[in-house]
Amino acid sequence: MDIEQIRDFCLSLPETTECFPFDETTLVFKVAGKMFLYTSLEAEQHWANVKCDPDLAIELREQYSYVMPGYHANKKYWNTIVYDKAKEEQMKEWMLHSYTEVVKKLPKIKREKLFEQLKKTGNLDDRL
User: Fold this and answer.
1) 58 belongs to a structural domain
2) If DSSP codes are grouped into helix, strand and coil, which group holds residue 79?
């Protein structure tokens, strides 16, 4: 995947916004004002930080050499992925997981609305 594909996928998720809250080169994607992915636009190595269930985060780090503890983030909940080494379907799955991890923590009314919208896009099955 490249940064344009990541951007397109993130923006396809309901109520996603993009911004540069830290500097002009750190692109952040948010849902309901909460980050679910951020990446540097000028780093030599192409990486993205995604939120992750703590147990899954450890499992992914052990399984894939290009998944590491979150760079400049709470390493319990965030993974850094060298996205040009990951398969496109893996990245989409991990970005979607990150998005849903954030949505799960929202108030019930907002959470249910976003999950309904997500189901309509075909990006979410009945696991949640």
Assistant:
1) yes
2) strand
Contacts of 98 (CB under 8 A, 6+ apart): 36, 37, 50, 51, 52
Confirm whether 106 is domain-assigned.
yes
Q: Name every residue whose Cβ is closer than 8 Å to that of residue 30 and which is 6 or more positions away in sequence.
A: 16, 17, 18, 19, 36
What is the span of the domain harbouring residue 67? 3-121
For the chain, the domain total comes to 1
CB 30 within 8 A of CB 103: no
pLDDT tens for each residue of 56-103: 999 999 999 999 999 889 999 999 999 999 999 999 999 999 999 999
With the C-alpha atoms ordered 33, 95, 43, 70, is the resulting torsion angle positive or negative? positive
Between CA 37 and CA 10 the distance in angstroms is 8
Residue 128 covered by a domain: no
**Which of 62, 68, 82 shows the shortest CA–CA distance to 1?**
82
What CATH number corresponds to the domain at position 90? 3.90.1150.30
The verdict on pTM exceeding 0.90 is yes
